[in-house]
Amino acid sequence: MEAEKESLSELSRLVKITLDLEEEIEKLQDVIDEKQAHLKQLIETDIPSAMETLGNWESITTGDGWKIEIKHDYHASISEANYTNAMRWLVDNDFEDLIKHDLTLSFSRGEHGTAEEVRDRLSAEGYAVKDKENVHSQTLKAWVREQKEQGTEIPDELFGVYPVTKAKITKGK
Fold first, then answer.
1. pLDDT digits (tens), the chain, 173 positions
2. CA distances from 49 to 56, 59, 94 (A)
3. Cβ–Cβ < 8 Å for 168, 58
4. Which of 172, 164, 147 is nearest to 47 (CA)?
5. What are the structural domain ranges in the chain?
6. Taking the model in full, what pTM does it have?
């Protein structure tokens, strides 16, 4: 009976430590999220604005040796609401190579051999196949940047495109 009581006491102690750590991690994550938002504000808004005030400089080295460069880029993402139209636009405008097909199959434990055989006979074997077309986010971003740099008109709203200016800070030589 005494051993069981000690085990329960130890279990309670471990549970308390676990819950305290989870709470501490959650609070730290909130601090990290706030710091990341502040950093984004500095890099994407405050520093580029200060550089513009100095005369639209794209690059400057400070007296203490920090090199600040302004980089122009784009964010892009295809929303669920625009998905069908965006895929159609890519196909209709000869950018179909950006679209990837992800096929997903589910097999039970121990069916590895069957999985290999089914690769060539998906429908005939009766397995449910999830077929999803998508454009990887980094591929989309790179493609948008390329099209913008070439002056190609693309429907920004369809691809969730918006320009972003970022400051890059490095130690000068």
1. 788 888 999 999 999 999 999 999 999 999 999 999 999 999 999 999 999 898 867 899 888 999 999 999 999 999 999 999 999 999 999 999 999 887 777 767 778 777 677 767 776 767 666 656 788 899 999 999 999 999 999 999 999 999 999 999 998 66
2. 9, 13, 38
3. no
4. 164
5. 2-57, 73-171
6. 0.61
Structure tokens given for 57: 């400089």
